[in-house]
Amino acid sequence: MSLVTTLAKFLGKCLGGLVAVAVTCYLLLLTVNWQDEAASERALDLKRQLTLKPVSNNGYQLYTTQLAQLGSAAIPELQQLFSDCYQAGCQSLLQAETETLQQLLAQQQQLLAAYQQWLATEHWQEPLLVSNDLPAYQPLLNGQRLQLLQAYLAARQGDSELAQQLLAADLQFWRKLLPQNRYLVSKMISVAAIEQHFLFASAINQSLTDGERPRPAIWQQPFSPAELSLELALAGEWQLSEQLIAKGLNESSELKLLQRLGVTLLKPLYQAQASSNERALLLSCEAGGQQAIAPWYHWAYNPVGKMLNRASKVPCAQYLSRLERLEQSRQQLVSAGQVPVPAASLAAD
Prior knowledge:
By secondary structure, the protein is mostly helical.
């Protein structure tokens, strides 16, 4: 019995020692994390980029207003026509009967008319989000498909001027969106729409004679650095991350007792501004946003923020590569279609 008592005392001392070590370590961490950092220049720069200036004729606002009326239902026949553009040169579309395409276009006149209203807007200003609540973009992409389909039918019927106008308006719209997109999701949707435009244009140009081919002047215009930049979208991601993390740390009412206790203990180890500063640096894709190698003990300061930031790191190279391919696709289209260089461009050269 005495052996059991001795063993119990030993285990009790070990457990007490472990608790004492844990408490001591936690108190040391509290001491290290006593004060937050000041805002870094990079964080302030991202914040400045997100300053909203009210604009009139905002296409985003018009789109979200009309979305409830249009609905976000898929249009299987339309999507099927464009489904093989990435692999087979839009053969489903090119092989379809003209009458079938005209019927489809007639059935979707409401969406096409709405899309052409969106094309005519001057700005596309997305609001600052407090959650992942961007609208459904399927109607916008389907509207583009209808616009491209209308251009194809016009070209097939010999009206290359109308086809050219429709294609120019479409690409002008999406290129206008590129530098205005505030989030990576919407930025990549704009990229996908431009990719779809180029693939479609390349396919129909191959199916038409030289005299029938539309040649919008905008195809000749190289993408600008602002269009191919991720800066504004990264600023939006930075701001959205701030909102979501703050919400997660502050809304613990639905958690169980032990979970709430864990959040309570972790909160002092999260420094909001230090996390924001580091996140801003990690989101410096085009500025080579790599941090200098820090000593192992740097994790003692703001450990929760560092873990959250590492978990939400953005794959910059993938996004930038996809943006760069837009210019390559434009050049290939111009080269294959022999799009004439506008006189202004020749004079500039």
